[in-house]
């Protein structure tokens, strides 16, 4: 019987959970971290004719390869988002953590060989990193994780953790386990999938539920595991932040949100007027505004199409080059901001979307090559599916220590030089680590209607 590996990629907002990565990883040098996976893929020369592009500015105190990895994750994020949007109705919300998905499949790459390894490198853009060999990607992931999840601010939590659940009757490759634990903090817990797959499913769901204070229930649906399951990977990320400039609860009012030209719903609209990084791009027909959380490292970016444009048009034409131009072009501006309270939650199977992007062999019983996971070479091992879950809730709460200057009651402002950002129609959002522009979350809000 073919052995089937069910991999679970789950994104949850995870309170009271610490990053499971060894402290010395953040100061480790390449020689301190022996990376010897079963197979190594060497990327082709990205500049075969020897042409040298003008070097770009890299943020201060940033490893150039970590910078490239952050950009690779950004390109994957937008490519995957566009693919996901094709499978959704225009009136569906979307929310996901692309960096969480990339991290989980980087761990998958640890056991991959041949065409399977090459496809992972290509689909997740890991082959765009100038360091030629695939094993070094893990070292730079460790550095990126340390940079992203270091303590940002007393009122901000950005936390990630990973866990492997393996069939207890099998012997997993020691090198695979060591790199998983040392780089990604993913320690292996044996479970009896063969004897009691439903019991194992309950154990994994309980682990997720406990880590999220019971906010995420039944992540793995009934029937998602069976007696042939070998390995389940749980990847979690949690973010909780307070606005640098909070919204005054007295400036929250009922308003209409226009889902389409003919369909609207009621929302609780928040308001404040203060300084934000902002820009209107008439050629692209979008307003872009950045709302910082306390500490300034993590921000939410809102991308609002003009009234004569649709969200679909913006999505179809968005790539990392354009997004970077928008982000770099914003300037401190006095803005009257209206944005609804909202909560978005999204669950998805990743398999079909990733297959459409070129990751086909990994999910094929005949073609998958994952010999680095098990001691016996793992013949017949493949990934049956992957699942991802995310949610986001936005309210008026912010940092009590931040100055709430410039906030006025609706209709009372006398500043005629301000810009107006009225998010009363579908918009895109990003949550990013701004110093290296790492996209932590991406989504769209189409139906934020109040219950």
Quick tags:
451 residues, alpha+beta, Antithrombin, Chain I, domain 2, Alpha-1-antitrypsin, domain 1, 2 domains, nine-stranded mixed β-sheet, 16 strands, 24% helix, Serpin_dom
Commentary on this structure:
The chain has helices at about 65-85, 100-110, 115-125, 135-150, 175-185, 195-210, 310-315, 320-330, 350-355, and strands at about 5, 95, 155-165, 185-190, 230-240, 250-260, 265-280, 285-290, 300-305, 330-340, 340-350, 380-385, 385-395, 420, 425-435, 440-445. α1 (about 65-85) crosses α4 (about 135-150). Strands 2, 6, 7, 8, 9, 10, 14, 15 and 16 form a nine-stranded mixed beta sheet that branches. A three-stranded mixed beta sheet has the order 4-3-5, sandwiched between helices. Strands 1-12 form a two-stranded parallel sheet. β6 (about 250-260) and β7 (about 265-280) form a beta hairpin. The radius of gyration is 22 Å and the shape is globular. It has two domains: about 5-240 and about 345-390, Antithrombin, Chain I, domain 2, CATH 3.30.497.10; about 250-340 and about 405-445, Alpha-1-antitrypsin, domain 1 (Roll). The protein is an alpha+beta fold and about 450 residues long. It contains nine helices and 16 strands. It is about 25% helix and about 25% strand. Mean pLDDT is about 80; it is low at about 10-25, about 50-55 and about 400-415.
């Amino acid at each position: 019987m073919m052995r089937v590996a069910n991999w679970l990629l789950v994104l949850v907002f995870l309170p009271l959970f610490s990053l499971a990565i060894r402290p010395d990883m953040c100061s480790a040098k390449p020689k301190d971290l022996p990376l010897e996976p079963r197979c190594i893929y060497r990327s082709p020369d990205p500049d075969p004719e020897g042409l040298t592009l003008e070097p770009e500015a890299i943020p201060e105190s940033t490893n150039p390869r970590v910078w490239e990895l952050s950009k690779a994750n950004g390109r994957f994020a937008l490519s995957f988002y566009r693919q996901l949007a094709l499978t959704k109705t225009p009136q569906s919300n979307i929310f996901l953590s692309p960096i969480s998905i990339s991290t989980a499949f980087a761990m998958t790459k640890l056991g991959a060989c041949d065409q399977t390894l090459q496809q992972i490198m290509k689909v997740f853009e890991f082959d765009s990193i100038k360091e030629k060999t695939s094993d070094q990607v893990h070292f730079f992931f460790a550095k990126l994780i340390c940079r992203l999840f270091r303590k940002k601010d007393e009122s901000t939590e950005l936390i990630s953790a990973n866990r492997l659940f393996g069939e207890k009757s099998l012997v997993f490759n020691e090198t695979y386990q060591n790199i998983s634990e040392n780089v990604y903090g993913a320690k292996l817990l044996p479970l009896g999938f063969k004897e009691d797959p439903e019991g194992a499913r309950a154990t994994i769901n309980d682990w997720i539920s406990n880590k999220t204070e019971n906010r995420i229930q039944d992540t793995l649906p009934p029937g998602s595991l069976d007696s042939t399951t070998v390995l389940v990977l749980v990847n979690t990320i949690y973010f909780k932040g307070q606005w640098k400039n909070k919204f005054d609860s007295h400036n929250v009012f009922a308003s209409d949100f226009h889902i389409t030209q003919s369909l609207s719903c009621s929302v609780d609209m928040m308001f404040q007027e203060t300084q934000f990084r902002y820009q209107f791009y008439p050629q692209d027909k979008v307003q872009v505004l950045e709302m910082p959380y306390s500490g300034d490292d993590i921000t939410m970016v809102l991308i609002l199409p003009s009234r004569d444009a649709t969200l679909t048009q913006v999505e179809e034409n968005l790539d990392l080059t354009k997004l970077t131009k928008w982000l770099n072009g914003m300037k401190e501006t006095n803005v009257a901001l209206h944005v609804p309270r909202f909560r978005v939650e999204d669950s998805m199977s990743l398999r079909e979307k990733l297959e459409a992007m070129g990751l086909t062999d990994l999910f094929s019983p005949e073609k998958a090559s994952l010999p680095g996971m098990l001691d016996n070479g793992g013949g017949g091992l493949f990934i049956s599916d992957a699942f991802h879950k995310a949610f986001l809730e936005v309210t008026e709460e912010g940092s009590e220590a931040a100055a709430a200057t410039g906030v006025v009651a609706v209709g009372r402002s006398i500043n005629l030089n301000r810009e107006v950002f009225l998010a009363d129609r579908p918009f895109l959002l990003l949550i990013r680590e701004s110093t290296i522009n790492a996209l932590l979350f991406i989504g769209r809000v189409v139906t934020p209607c109040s219950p």
